[in-house]
Amino acid sequence: MADQHDNTEREAFYERIDPHNLTPLWSVMSGLITPEPKSRCEAHLWRYDEVRPALMEAGELITAKEAERRVLILENPGLRGQSKITTSLYAGLQLVKPGEVAPAHRHTQTALRFVLEGSGAHTAVNGERTYMEPGDFVITPNWAWHDHGNDSDAPMVWLDGLDIPLVQFLDASFAQGLGADEQPVTRPAGDALARFGQGLLPVDHDAASPTSPIFNYPYERSRAALETMRQRDEWDACHGLKMRYVNPVTGDYAMPTMGTFVQLLPKGFATQSYRSTDATVMVCVEGNGSSQIGDETFTWGPRDIFVVPSWHPVRHEAAGDAVLFSYSDRPVHEKLGLWREARGNA
Ligand code: GTQ
């Protein structure tokens, strides 16, 4: 009876304070401060063979120029309508057909490209073009002019990873068009890799930018590195052989908001259960296998893309030698003192 009385009184109180834009913490606290991460982000896999026809159909419906960027967004099934693959990150598949250009613009969102199909199309950043091959990891730093073009004779498709939701959350989006299809080319192709990607740095280079000055990490090199390292036969129980892409100037992640990784799992290798707070987008580059995420199992092959939500236990198993590329918001977690991982069944 006392409770009933209290509740009526409380409800009346809530209604009285509502017009003043006030609300009681004790009604919402358990949903705000959860004992562990609770996300609407769901584990999901996009099979490239199933998505590709839709992308090619989009290629018939709109030009890259008209669309500005001809992209199909990979929307997390738990976050539909929000243009998110995880709570903080965006993913899309971009198609540039032969002869097309995606006009120059810049924005405060940072972008990564991971090339899935095609050869020799280019993106230009800071006056330099890079010609892209499958497996290349390419960076567009925040506020850098960038345009894409395809002078090859085949369509090029890459995965776009951007920090759009994070920038949106912070209300920090700025964007501009250059008013021209392409920015002027002022440096030879390969200049950034020569200057910054050889274990050398220009002697007076200042480290002001949080983004790596290397803007194409070619797959050929990453793959060769993994192949050399595997000979030592030292495998991490949770990751196989996993490397992170690095900004050679600072030793930090290549981009301030997104961490990128490449890992090799040898044929037959099964990882131990692992979880971490950074929801992760994974792309199979080579080989095939399966991943158990929570109580769901997804099988994957080349170019398939899947997402591991925050704090969901994951176990990978490689049916053949497999290479996975991945990206997450781990740098943000780490800088804010929020990153956690648990190995094994902890
Ligand atoms: O290529 O600049 O998928 O600005 C979304 C926004 C790609 C790009 C996307 C973009 C781009």
How would the blueprint of this fold be written?
Layout: H1 2-17, H2 25-32, E1 44-46, H3 48-61, H4 64-67, E2 71-73, E3 90-96, E4 101-107, E5 111-117, E6 122-125, E7 128-131, E8 137-140, E9 146-149, E10 156-162, H5 164-169, E11 175-177, H6 191-196, E12 216-217, H7 219-229, E13 241-244, E14 259-265, E15 274-276, E16 280-286, E17 289-293, E18 296-300, E19 305-308, E20 314-318, E21 322-328, H8 330-335, E22 341-343
Antiparallel strand pairs: 1-19, 2-3, 3-10, 4-9, 4-11, 5-8, 5-10, 6-7, 6-9, 8-12, 13-14, 14-21, 15-22, 16-19, 16-21, 17-18, 17-20
This protein binds 2,5-dihydroxybenzoic acid (GTQ).
What is the helix tally?
Answer: 8
Query: CATH topology, what is it called?
Result: Jelly Rolls
State the assembly state of the protein chains.
single chain
Q: Can you give the helix content as a percent range?
A: 10-25%
What molecules are bound to this protein?
2,5-dihydroxybenzoic acid
**How does CATH name the architecture?**
Sandwich
Overview of the structural elements:
- This protein is an alpha+beta fold and 346 residues long.
- It has helices at 2-17, 25-32, 48-61, 64-67, 164-169, 191-196, 219-229, 330-335, and strands at residues 44-46, 71-73, 90-96, 101-107, 111-117, 122-125, 128-131, 137-140, 146-149, 156-162, 175-177, 216-217, 241-244, 259-265, 274-276, 280-286, 289-293, 296-300, 305-308, 314-318, 322-328, 341-343.
- The strands form five sheets. The protein has a six-stranded antiparallel beta sheet.
- The model has no long low-confidence stretch (mean pLDDT 97).
- 2,5-dihydroxybenzoic acid (GTQ) binds at residues 69, 71, 92, 94, 107, 111, 146, 160, 162.
